[in-house]
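Quick board copy: two proteins, each given as sequence then tokens.
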Amino acid sequence: MLDFLLERKIFAFSLAGAAVVLLGFIAWRVYSLKQPSPGVERQPVLQFDYCGAELDELCLLSFGRDVNGNSIINLFVPDRDFPDFYLNISRFNGTSVYVCIKNEEMPTSVLCMGDVINLNERIEINIMSAEDYQLLAKGTFNLTAILISSQAGDFQTPRTGTPIPSSPTQTFTSGASEPPASTLVPTSSPSYPNYP
């Protein structure tokens, strides 16, 4: 009976020792993964600002709002190999994460959507790599104007092209001397301001 208790204690201590060694290994592995490897040099953090006349580097095109009230940030990304990213927005009342999607029709345009940003609010935008969560670029902005979208949709930019008329268009046949009277739309005579 005494041997059975002794064997049980030895087994329990062995099991506890193995658990401590396993936890130590896991802690070391997690710590080593968070540290940058010595062979990999980190790229310097880019600074970005509003876009100018020349679109040749990472910049902010516009702030906007969708029909649901979410803020939209439109970024110009000149490098098609720029990694996928998300935005970490620091503001007076905390931080927000914005999800970013590349525009399929224009790959240099990236749209990011998240919590509402108010006019005259000062924010710091941190562009974070979606793969390794490293800071890629940052910029500080004062929101002075926003574009409010009237389109409900799936987070896409409006397509450009010929607008579709709101009423059906009647065709004019070349054999007639003038188009049918029903298609004629009278226009008012020009008006000019009357100054005293």
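And the next:
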Amino acid sequence: MDYLVGMKACINVIGLCLNMGGVIMLFFWSLPQPSPDANTGRILEDGTNMEDGRTAGEHRAEAARKKLKSKVIAYAALTLLLAGFGCQLFAAV
């Protein structure tokens, strides 16, 4: 019986750690939001040079990469939160 109590406590701690990892990830990379950078130079052609020397197409591509990275990290964080919740629920039963 003591073995089961110790195992449940361990699973609970694992769940808490997964939850904290997910919360920290969401703190630094929040859930995806509409990005105004994605619309940079919508009336400009992709080959048009901008003030910083890059083209409008390069600006759009960079904004799309940033948005994809943020989305992947946010969904990974949500997965950690759900896994942590599952561990804690399993430990409570």
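Board note added afterward: The radius of gyration is 21 Å.
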